[in-house]
Amino acid sequence: MESSFAILAEPNRRAILSLLAGSERSVGEIERRLRMPQTSVSKHLRVLREAGFVEARIDAQRRVYRIRPEPLMEVDAWLAPFRQFWTKHVDALERHLDRMAEAELTPKLDEAATIPTPKLDEAAMTPKKGKNR
What we know:
The protein is mainly α and 133 residues long. 65% of the residues lie in helices and 11% in strands. The chain has 7 helices and 3 strands, in the order H-H-E-H-H-E-E-H-H-H.
């Protein structure tokens, strides 16, 4: 399992896998999207292919790569017992954010329910002495 983690530890390989997670791509597409030299892309794809993370098919004169899910499922299975450690924290964060959003929304609802009463200008309403209208 160490070899899988060593392979995934390299940032460019993770970037390639992230790109391939959306759809299969040719070497040229990966090169353009990640702004990496073709030699680097090919080197990383070779490592990923030899480790079983990706597979290639020939399409005319180009190789098109796609993810193979099995090695990622093995990594996922290895991580499963550790999920409890961050799941609790993520759930607590979600509850906290919900409470914050609710608290922020409550005053706005109270303000919307209150209809302001206009202040009357008593001086303007009292008739002036000596003038008949």
